[in-house]
Amino acid sequence: MIYRSSFYAILAIFLFIQGCSSKKQSAGDFSLSNFDVKESTVAYSDFIGSNDCQTCHLDIYNEWKGSTHGQAGGIPNSDRVIAPFTSKPIQLADAIVYPELKNGIYQFRIRYKESEHEEVIRVEAVIGKGFLYGGGTQTFFGKYPDGTYRFLPFDFSKDESSWFVQLKSDEKWAKINKSIGMIDLYNWPPHRVLGEVDDISNCQQCHGSQIIAEKLDSGYDTKFVSLSVNCESCHGPAKNHVTIMSNIVKNIVNEKQSIGLASLSGLQPKESLDLCFQCHAVKTPLKPGYLPGENLAEFYSLRMALLGNENPYSIDGRIKSFGYQQNHLFSDCFLSGSMTCISCHNPHSQNYQDINRIALIDRFDDRQCTSCHMAKINDISSHTFHDAESEGSRCISCHMPFRQQRAIGTEIKYTRSDHTISIPRPVYDSSQGFESSCIQCHSDISESKLQTIVDDWYGPIKPQNPIIANRLKITESTLGDDAAKLLLQPNLVHSMGQFSNLSYFIKRYLTPGMELLDPEIVNKLIIYAQSEDIDLKALALAGLHYSQYNNLEIQKFIVQELDKLGDKEESVRRRWGLILDYFGTVYYLSGDRPNAIQCYELARQVLPNDKTIKT
Q1: What are the tens digits of pLDDT across the range 406-455?
Q2: Where are the domains of the chain?
């Protein structure tokens, strides 16, 4: 955490530096030493699968086996497949697709109308079973000659009882109809692969366990322990643990040896969240090869998605396109408390529980909130202004409403509960493009009228977090110095909001090699560059490098900070270099080749051995 006293101390130092230094260099004059690439500490052979866990942990194993994780996917069979593989034809504009079961094999037979040519794609893997309350789906993968498992274009919605596809034109989901041709399908020919593969659109490693797609001379070797989400996905590799415990049963004991598996009890909130954010987050890959048990931050950034134009989150963290539960990090329950995923979700059964790990009836049980907010228990109606037993008195109705994920359109139900745990603000919600929780029930009342009702009930409500409130004050006419006062606040705590605000400021107000930049802005960037949050640190270092590469004192500061990074250097530099590479691409796509070249050159200084950076 950065305290105000240290902020002003560093500010004074660098006001002096900026006032005294007039030395300039070009981007090409600055160089950084290379860094050591960490070797993986976990190997595929370290994993053993969940079946061995049941010998000692049968009760937990049975909970997991019946959970959504335990049933997340696998090979196709009658138990797992919910889509109708009945040979009933699916009519497209240029083809007829027959989902069929032939001699125990699930397959899609595609017959092209014009040529009458037929193509058969065997289903080798099934993902999902339509479990999710807000709209559950099932997806299918085929195995291709290059060794990859590829996402097939035909999905099934349990809620709609319908096959659907993703369209190439706008990437939205649509029920199949005769106006759609094979050429219109986003996933045709199949190109998204299971596992994480460089230069190929992929599903990372979330839809299964310990998925590795290793590049060979001619194709890939794709392997996985399971297509469910198994025990080792959270607990890490267990082969050594099983060996040690089996030896203990045989009275072979090494008193100096651990049990071979780290305990997940007593994790700090960030550590606990990172277990879930392996999958339940929008991640930016930094390097391939992640396996559970590794340090997630060395392989993925959980903030860098906020940098790009396709940022899935709104200013206050709500999902504006397609996202996951990572926006929990915007919630006051996290920022002012220590709420993690398992505060509400049992990690083994995926059933609901309260903060004390007491099982709850279902996802709508208010005790997941009132176990912390106990003052609301006795007279809930005085808080909600609705009948105690009504939908309007359920905590999540107002604070975690289900909203359709906009990126996929409205034709296929796919709603997800808002994990920012927001306060209803009807007019503000509407101004940000969101349907307020109030209007979900009261669709006959305008947002302005609903706002009046809310104001009458509650009077002045809790203000928004200052990081968010200040971002909302920025307009098209806001000048850089004024924006800096609003957006650059290193003395506050809101890592997602600060990353978002800092990235916005850099993109809008900074340019490569600026000769004149307010010293106070420079010093705020310096404070951020000393943050313990490696995403924020990397972004600030990139901002300083980008805008002040001709300042010798800033160059010295950057080198000094690198010397302090220790085993975090690779993680920080991968983020930092990718950010500069992104800036270069933005300039390149806008036709500004000189600035693009400058940014790529800066990126290569940070990542000298990265061949993906343009030259």
Answers
A1: 999 999 999 999 999 999 999 999 999 999 999 999 999 999 999 999 99
A2: 4-30+467-606, 71-223, 270-287+322-464
Q: What is the pTM of this model?
A: 0.92
Name 324's Cβ contacts closer than 8 Å, sequence gap at least 6: 279, 280, 281, 282
Strands 284-285 and 300-301: what pairing?
A: antiparallel
Contacts of 527 (CB under 8 A, 6+ apart): 2, 6, 7, 10, 490, 491, 540
Q: Which of 368, 366, 405 is nearest to 383 (CA)?
A: 366
Q: How many CB atoms lie within 10 A of CB 54?
A: 15
CB 83 within 8 A of CB 99: yes
Q: How far is CA 104 from the centre of its chain?
A: 37
DSSP state letters, 276-313: HHTTSS--EESSS---BTB-GGGTEESSGGGTSTT--B
CA dist 239 → 53, 245, 265, 290 (Å): 10, 10, 20, 18
For 502-511, the pLDDT digits (tens) are 999 999 999 9
Residue 2 has pLDDT above 50, yes or no: no
